[in-house]
Amino acid sequence: MAVNYLDEWEASGVDPQLTQLNVIPLAGHRPLNYLLSANTLSRRNDGRLSSSWLNRYDHVYAGGWWCSGVDILTGKSDLWGCFKPLQPRQSIDQKKLIKYEHPPQTPTGIFALRVSQEIWQRIAERYHLEITPEAIQADQPDLGFWHWVIHHPEVPLCITEGAKKAGALLSAGYAAIALPGICSGYRVPKDEWGNRTGSPRLIPQLQKLATRQREIYITFDQETKPNTIKVVQGAIQQLGYLFTRANCVVKVITWNPQLGKGVDDLIVNQNQTEFDRAYASALTFESWKALCFNRLTYTADCQVESRYLPEIEIPESAKFIGIKSPKGTGKTQLLERLVKKAIQRQQWVLVISHRTRLVEVLCQKFGLKSIKSGNQTQTLTFPDLAIPGYGLCIDSLHPYSMAQFQAENWQDGVVIIDEVEQVLWHGLNSETCRYHRVAILKSFKTLMQNVLGGNGKVIVADADLSDISIDYLRTLAGVEQAPFIIKNDWKPSPEEAWQVYSYSGNTPKQLVKDLEQHIAEGGKPFVCLSAQTTASQWGTCTLEGYLKTQFPQKQILRIDSESLADPTHPAYGCMNHFNQVLKRYDIVLASPAIETGVSIDLKGHFTSVWGIAQGIQSENSVRQALSRVRENIPRFLWVATHGFNQIGNGSISLQEILSSGNRLTQLNIRLLQQSDFEALDDIEIGFQAESLLCWAKIAVRFNAGMNHYRTAILSALLAEGHQIIERDLEEKASDSNSIENEQKETWQRPTLGELITAVRDQNYQSECQAIAEAATLDYSQYQNLTKKMVKTPSERRSQRKYELKSRYGILVTPELVEKDDQGWYQQLRIHYFLTVGRTYLEGRDLEVAQRLIEQGNGSIFIPDFNRSQLGTVIGTLELLGISALVNTVERELRNTDSDLQKMAEIALRDRAAIKSILGIGLAKNSTPITVLRRLLDKIGYRLKCLRSESKNRKRIRVYGMVKPVDEREKVFQQWLSNEGQHPGQLQQALNLFQGVNWSQDQVQNESLQLCLKF
Questions:
Q1: Are 582 and 602 in contact (CB under 8 A)?
Q2: Of 918, 829, 823, which is closest to residue 867 (Cα–Cα)?
Q3: pLDDT digit string (tens) for 233-292?
Q4: What gap in Å lies between CA 700 and CA 468, rounded to an integer?
Q5: Residue 835 lies in a domain
């Protein structure tokens, strides 16, 4: 049988010249000369190989091809390589064929293939480098290219598995080496008994290539089997870690497996442009590790590939059931059947969700009651129920809620958690759970222990079900029983897949223009938006106002948290008969209030789905929103390149986000201990380590998604099987380049941006005025209003007015509403405790800590506790000298000022601590003025350039500090009055605020020294 290796390598996208330089055909006894060359192989007395070796490799006589490259350690031809036999042998367990043979009892090496000068030149041009004659005419010509790569750390290196894949990458113009296996790049030292004797380390060949700051691109196959995925992830993590230790910059290249499993498949099946795109969007090592938390690697007990989940027989012994199935494939219907069976068995059913509307929808389908948090008229307790269970938000899963939930009473029943990934995150991180989080998590853990530890069942479902949720719930329950996983691998066919038109650009203006045209042509769009507030330029309120002016004859329905809770709005109550209501409207604008739990099954009504994702929601929430309309109609989507919501210190490293949180907690506690706070003696800092770990995993996953927001969303849509069509339409002339047109015309129609802004400003100013003029409430009226789930617009505005009056203590005006929306309170609070209120900071932190500890019965949840404390924030700003600077407004500031240079030195040396404490990210090369500007932003001060001056033939800019004129002194006066000061003390404090210079020595105290140790 002839060895047609040239065609085989060319089919993998390898340049024929490269193939001829590295691959040779072998047959008869010749393969043995290449494979069985190790001196350690057993031999007969006459030197011939033992029969056992000859018998094992007798299949190679039929022929095959051998590939080896250059030994970069010696500069000679590599004796190590691989042989691909025409007739492969079976593995020892007889489960698979061994496609490639490597020399036995020989340390594995790498495939550093010889390259032609043409390919060498191609790679050099890619990185704008030159090839010197000396490099070409080296003493060791085979090593010439690799000698050049080794001594040019600016040349990135791709690492893949398999020689042909390295050949495909080299042919495409990328420097690449291949490993014989994904775990072959490192070795773990072991003794003669197989015991580990040291830490893993890179093999010598990779150490040679691991030049400081070289970019390493790990380019392994894109696997689809859970077990294989887990193995590949482990190999990438180990290899990436070792290269990072060698001070290399590690990136991981990923692509949709449907485009090809290996990188050679991707290049051949698609084109090189597709790989170029994947290469350009490679994830940093930390981002890749964070996004790995999206995976579900548990083996499926029931694996189907069905448009709709079929009837599935679940063993009675299965207690923990996980359902992973794409959106719109009947997860809720499967849950309905499981609930019905549970009720027939006379088991109670508890439905837990994260949104009130979703609870209502699910319970309506399941035939159960739902408890509305805060609604006293629907208080239900267990076991004194006339119904077999109920549903509630996780916010109410504690004894102090209106549900009066007692986890001890719930045993041996069935717990249903739909959209479990979002439910858990809501319970672990949402503001609405903050003050009862410890109680909620305690109840949740007891519930899991009672149900899974007894005769009950826990059923979770999510299109994006991951190991995080499964691991967390198992750990909470403390059970070893493996979950019963139902996995539906259905993907839409090309005919069923969405056509998603993706808009680039920095704003969604072009999408909105196309939306207008679509409506003008008779289209009926369903529009998913990220925000609701009137202050948002692309939120539901603004877009509703704009479209009403453009299409006054169209029926527009706005669905958001405000309209759903407003009994005077058409959206109120629509969730109970959603599909019937939507038929009456031409345009529907929806906020994230209905991103989950809603199925719009209308056929032939909506003509398109539009989405504007500004970087607020998580990436899976955006995809959830786009899937609410089940009909396969075109999707049009604009996504911000990066999100701006960050969790914790914004880190994408699990270790970093946990360790920084723990250090910050220790620092906060040490500050409180200075006050002899007795409650700290018995505080439980390590409350539910499993909950903290789950929080951290989801946090780094969330942060990584925000860092690569557009890429993450579009990649996930591709992975779901949808088609992404780039909408490369350039935006029409913007304001900046329309000057020429203005000169030609005396009148010009306002641009889309101007019209949208005008609508937003008008709506927003009207709302601010309405809040300022709303009825004034007393404390009792306010308390009653906060308990109402349904509020009219006037009630909602009165509630906001009361809260603003309580927060600032001054007259509520439209200007105050606007300043509060812009984060004025956060700026004032820091400024106050940094200056006139410094005496009261300790008491404030003590009071907040005391409340959290009491609500947690002696326990604290670290993320909530750290967010609640201000001592470290103020102490850090004092340490950096900000408290002294804010009282020297007239001072001129330069990058050359010694105190500013010292401030920048401290801030840049401890950038991680600054990020954790102040939430400020600083670039390594930030100037003192840049650092100062970022720090002053925390209190609303700014810098302006006064002039430039010359010093030692260098131009130096001179800056001045601009103190905001926003009447914050009145607020500080109210706050000081509330602190209980005597009038004389109050005036003294205000005088101090007006301009007394504070030296650094005056503000130094023990708390500041702690910041240095962070």
A1: yes
A2: 918
A3: 999 999 999 999 999 999 999 988 888 999 999 999 988 988 998 998 888 888 888 888
A4: 12
A5: no
pTM: 0.83
What is the Cα–Cα distance from 597 to 363, expressed in whole angstroms? 11
Q: What is the phi/psi pair of residue 95, to 5°?
A: -95, -20
Tokens 């051949």 label which residue?
A: 268
pLDDT for 239 equals 95
Give how far Cα 146 sits from Cα of 156, 214, 291, Å.
12, 14, 33
Examine the domain organization and report whether 715 and 699 are in the same domain: no
Q: Are 691 and 714 found together in one domain?
A: no
Q: Is the dihedral of CA 513, 542, 726, 592 positive or negative?
A: negative
**Separation of alpha carbons 221 and 255, rounded Å:** 9
Task: Provide the domain count of the chain.
Answer: 5
Per-residue model confidence as pLDDT tens digits over 747-779: 467 888 889 999 999 999 999 999 999 999 999
Cα distances (angstroms) measured from residue 504 to each of 208, 497, 638: 41, 21, 7
Task: Report pLDDT for 224.
Answer: 81
**Regarding predicted confidence, which is higher, 445 or 384?**
445
CA end-to-end span of the chain, whole Å? 70
How many whole angstroms separate alpha carbon 76 and alpha carbon 60?
Answer: 26
Q: Bridge-partner residues for 17, per DSSP?
A: none
3-class SS at 660? Answer: helix
Of the listed ranges 175-189, 903-917, 991-1005, the least confidently predicted one is 991-1005
Same domain, 697 and 714: no
Are 107 and 38 spatial neighbours (Cβ–Cβ below 8 Å)?
Answer: no
Tokens (6 digits) for 241: 């870690």
Give all strands (DSSP E) within 347-388, no chain letters. Answer: 349-353, 369-370
Give the dihedral of Cα atoms 238, 244, 246, 247; nearest 10 deg: 180
Evaluate whether residue 71 is within a structural domain: yes
Tokens found for residue 739: 């000057």
Q: In one letter, which amino acid is 722? A: H
Write the secondary structure of 459-520 as one string of H (helix), E (strand) and C (coil). Answer: EEECCCCCHHHHHHHHHHHCCCCCCEEEEECCCCCCCCCCEEEEECCCCCHHHHHHHHHHHH
CA distances from 66 to 8, 69, 86, 360, 795 (A): 13, 10, 11, 66, 80
Interhelix angle 928-936/898-909, nearest 10 degrees: 80
SS (H, E, C) 952-989: CCEEEEEEEEECCCCCHHHHHHHHHHHCCCCHHHHHHH
Q: What six digits make up the tokens of 863?
A: 């993320």
**Mind listing the pLDDT tens digit for each residue in 506-534?**
999 999 999 999 999 999 999 999 987 87
Mapping DSSP to helix (H, G, I), strand (E, B) and coil, where does residue 784 land?
Answer: helix
Identify whether 767 is part of a domain: no
Please state the separation of Cα 35 from the chain's center in Å: 47
Find the CATH number of the domain harbouring 347. Answer: 3.40.50.300
What's the full length of the chain, in residues? 1014
- The answer for residues whose C-beta is within 8 angstroms of residue 537's C-beta and 6 or more apart is 756, 757, 760
On whether both 224 and 262 belong to a single domain, the answer is: yes
Same-domain status, 603 and 697: no
pLDDT category at 386 given cuts 50, 70, 90 is: low
Please state, rounded to an integer, the average pLDDT across all residues of the chain.
Answer: 87
Find, among 530, 535, 537, the residue nearest to 764 by Cα: 535
Phi, psi of 621 (to 5 degrees): -65, -35
The closest alpha carbon to 252, from 214, 294, 205, 287, belongs to 287
**Within this chain, do residues 865 and 965 fall inside the same structural domain, yes or no?**
yes
Q: Which of 446, 462, 486 is the last residue of a domain?
A: 486
Containing domain of residue 418, as a range? Answer: 302-486
Region 842-860: mean pLDDT is 89
Angstrom distances, CA of residue 814 to CA of 764, 768, 794, 821: 10, 5, 15, 11
Evaluate whether residue 759 is within a structural domain: no
